[in-house]
From TrEMBL:
UniProt-listed InterPro entries: Meroterpenoid_MTases, SAM-dependent_MTases_sf
Highest taxon above the source species: Eukaryota
Pathway membership: Secondary metabolite biosynthesis
Protein name: Methyltransferase domain-containing protein
Taxonomic source organism: Aspergillus puulaauensis
Similarity comment: family membership: Belongs to the class I-like SAM-binding methyltransferase superfamily.
Keyword Cytoplasm: no
Molecular function, one GO term: transferase activity
Keywords: S-adenosyl-L-methionine, Transferase
């Protein structure tokens, strides 16, 4: 959804005095900023990004949060990438690519890291945010997982197909209704290596009560919020659509972002964050 550049929604975080320590550390030690340069730089980039899209993750400064190290499968992901130099990691809906930079700073060769977004401006802003265009070897691909476009699908397959062992999808699927989520997941599976053991890991807004919820104040559409049972059913549907089978592990959590979104027009007391993984078993 393209935003009115002068509009600030109710959930926009004003008067930011600092950023989280992990992001501060990365921007100093990976990007080379002086400590007092970081906050003005970040706020300038946020303003530029928010003029493009009114995403809560931008307005609420969550584009500087690193969620991959908190995922239950993080050590497994790290070990796989370190032990297999040809293994590929795809951040689907990468936005600024902050998780990619985190992994690169952990010593994962950036040529093993891939990013996918539908907006070139976010990829360009990522280079600007982290000051690494001259040294990051990550391949970024442009595409919309939800649009039936043969040319776009062919281009994504050419760029990413057969190179990916791990897909990471954070704050992605909750943008869509169930049918659109299914379409996106099916396309992501098609980009993975065609073998048992490949995994999709993610986190997103969920609910104690699974179902479609209006995205009031953000768009005219709905988002499907999963609970543990619905997510397992979802991956059964993905498996049926792709002739594959998946083992799903998931848990619902109450986190700061949930408390933050309770104040939004789409918030309710049943909201949770759902952390999950789907590992191909057949």
């Amino acid at each position: 959804m393209t935003a009115d550049k002068d509009t600030k929604p109710e959930w926009y975080q004003e008067d930011v005095k600092s950023i989280n320590p992990d992001a501060q550390n990365l921007l100093e030690n990976y990007s080379g900023f002086q400590a007092d340069e970081v906050l003005p730089h970040v706020l300038s980039l946020r303003a530029e990004a928010f003029r493009i899209y009114h995403y809560p993750c931008i307005g609420q400064m969550r584009f500087l949060s690193f969620h991959i190290p908190r995922h239950p499968l993080f050590e497994r992901v790290l070990e796989h990438l370190r032990n297999n130099p040809t293994a590929g990691f795809l951040d689907a809906g990468c936005c600024f690519g902050q998780e990619i930079r985190y992994l690169a700073h952990q010593g994962i060769p950036s040529r093993q890291l891939f990013g996918l977004d539908f907006e070139q401006a976010f990829i360009d802003l990522g280079y600007k945010l982290f000051r690494d265009k001259d040294r990051l070897e990550t391949t970024f691909a442009l595409g919309d997982l939800t649009v039936d476009d043969g040319g776009s699908e062919e281009a994504l397959t050419k760029t990413l197909g057969g190179k990916i062992d791990i897909v990471y999808a954070s704050s992605l699927f909750h943008l869509w209704d169930y049918g659109t989520q299914l379409k996106a997941a099916t396309r992501l599976v098609s980009l993975l290596r065609d073998q048992v053991g490949v995994i999709v890991v993610g986190r997103q807004l969920g609910s104690i009560f699974a179902g479609e919820y209006p995205l009031t104040g953000f768009s005219d559409g709905t988002q499907y919020r999963h609970n543990l049972e619905s997510l397992k059913g979802f991956w059964l549907d993905v498996g049926q659509a792709t002739s594959t089978q998946w083992k799903v592990e998931a848990e619902l959590k109450v986190e700061d972002v949930v408390q933050q979104n309770l104040k939004s027009s789409w918030g309710d007391s049943n909201m949770r964050m759902i952390w999950w993984s789907a590992t191909r078993i057949a």
